[in-house]
Amino acid sequence: YTEAAMHFRKGFVDVVGIAGHVDPRDPAVGRWVTPYFFLLSSEELATLWSGAPVSIAAIEELRAVAEVHPEARTQAAWLWEIVLSLDDQQRGKFFRFVTGSSRRPSAGVTSFRIGPKSGGDGAYPFAHACANALDMPSYSSRAVLRERLGGGGGGG
Question: Active-site positions, per UniProt (predicted)?
Fold first, then answer.
């Protein structure tokens, strides 16, 4: 129990953003942290702990911060049309493909870059998940892009 409680307190301290100010090994942390959990719904706690599901709003947020290279503008426009038409599960797969996470960070996404990639219809998009970047070939049509995304969400 003691080790599990310690991990729980440390996780809470990290998530809430007070890691530099509080020692999670201090038993007093449990006394003042625990009552606040009752103020949160299970959904709010899950969001704080592991981020939010990838909603259409999360995709719109990604789109709003996206920097699109001029050579990739047409493909980027097709990409947003395709991704916005996906179901929740496919959106999660796409989000994981381009960011490395299947859930939206609780603080949101702050950057995303779409750039050109050599190759045509036979090439696949290439994601740099650590950098929130996607390199896309110049596809001849929206249908080819959808197919290269695995029928929907980035890698099948």
Answer: 130 (glycyl thioester intermediate)
